[in-house]
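User: I'm putting together notes for a lab meeting next week and I want to include a structural view of one of the chains we've been expressing. I don't have a solved structure, so I'd like a prediction I can at least talk through. The sequence is below, exactly as it appears in our construct file.
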Amino acid sequence: MQSNQMNRNLKQVKIENSQNSPHKRDYATADLEGAMTGEEGEALTVDIKNFRRPGEKAYTQRCRLFVGNLPTDITEQDFKKLFEKYGDPSEIFINRDRGFGFIRLETRTLAEIAKAELDGTMMRNRPLRIRFATHGAALTVRNLSPVVSNELLEQAFSQFGPVERAIVIVDDRGKPTGKGYVEFAAKPAARKALERCSDGAFLLTSSPHPVIVEPMEQFDDEDGLPEKLLQKNTQYHKEREQPPRFAQPGTFEFEYASRWKALDEMEKQQRDQVDRNIREAKEKLEAEMEAARHEHQLMLMRQDLMRRQEELRRLEEMRNQELQKRKQIEMRHEEERRRREEEMMRQREQQDEMRRRQEGYKPNYIDNMTCFP
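Assistant: Thanks for the context. Below is the predicted structure for the 373-residue chain, given as structure tokens.
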């Protein structure tokens, strides 16, 4: 009960890096994913290395922060000291002339904490502006099959280079939207994937639906545009003369606001019509593809049947040839047997003839012998 209450309440947690840096700062957090232990009301010290999700890759583009409005005389040592409690960075870049820099931390969570804590921090009378850096090696992937997962998407695009993250976008019910994005570790891999997929037809499943790959549009949907960052120019003061309001019927504002709304409605209707046309075209193409697939399968079956018939015919010919050979062999054997029998008969006849001659000669010899006294 006490543990559940701790997870529901906000806690003060002291964060320190693995080198036990003396620079600590308290911040409120609602959940540390089981990292918090101890009695209620106590401030906990958490090793910064624990802020890493299972399977999360380290030092990716998603962990890269843009730091703006830097003092022009800032040193790399000052810049590193600013982020020292968030772990060891793998990249530091400073442009002193233009007053900005980049730093890459180990995990996304650490980068989020650093951004939340340091954004707006005064450094030599200048408020720092910290945002997540634009991911220059990210691609949007459309026309994904419903059976494509994050893992399959990453596996498919890994052939172009190391992939940091691959996500299939789903709706609020977990149903795939047919869209996703792939974040590469470097720009050359992203360019290679974009070129190969644009020139060829990249298929992720057995269905001949090629994925559509485009450069990913970058949006800042976390911080937006704060009032303090707006340029207070002539247009700003002109547009901000009037507060937010509803246009009153019969006025100049109402007339042109209505025309703008009508134009927007016309655009919406045209977009809906285009969407319907595209949907119908896709359904037609899907039906044609299924018919062609069926015809292709029939053709393959006919080809297989012809191949089997040809194979049977060839086997039949081979069997007939084998039977013919056997018959010829049997005929030769029979002829050889007949010749041997005839030869044996001739030999017996000759032997009988010789025996008869011998027997016929002996009596004559005896008779001749009896003529002498």
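A couple of points you could mention at the meeting. Residues 252-369 form the longest helix (118 residues). The longest strand covers residues 176-184.

User: Perfect, that's what I needed.
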